[in-house]
Amino acid sequence: MREDMTAFVERAPLMEQRLGVSFAGLYAYGDDQYVHVNGEMRSSAGDQLSQDVEIVVNLYDAGGRMLGTMNEYVKADAFFGFESFSLSEDLEEDQAQVTRILVVAKKW
Asked: DSSP secondary structure string, 61-87?
């Protein structure tokens, strides 16, 4: 059964601003033992990135413990305007404990 977890999604606007990107269309859901996060990373400075970027999604429980992490790399020379991503993490029984999903962009 699919559970909408989008309400748990948080972003780090200062990190996004520093890298000249923003996230849009974020949607998170759990099914069985997986957590899935879909979205777009967009350039906030035109159609290009000034550097390679890593999209990182961290999954936390109510105690602040990181249950899992997933990432995707975006090369500046292959980027034009936006990058769609769809990431999944197998958490087994911990999927039901996720209360925070942090989506950040990092310099790669």
From this structure: -TTS-EEEEEEEEE-GGG--SEEEEEE
- CB neighbours of 20 closer than 8 A, spacing ≥ 6? 43, 44, 45, 49, 50
Q: Name the domain count of the chain.
A: 1
Tell me the pLDDT tens digit for each residue of 57-80: 999 999 999 999 999 999 999 999
Predicted structure pTM score: 0.93
User: Can you tell me the distance from the alpha carbon of 94 to that of 90, in angstroms, rounded to the nearest whole number?
Assistant: 9
CATH number at residue 85: 2.60.40
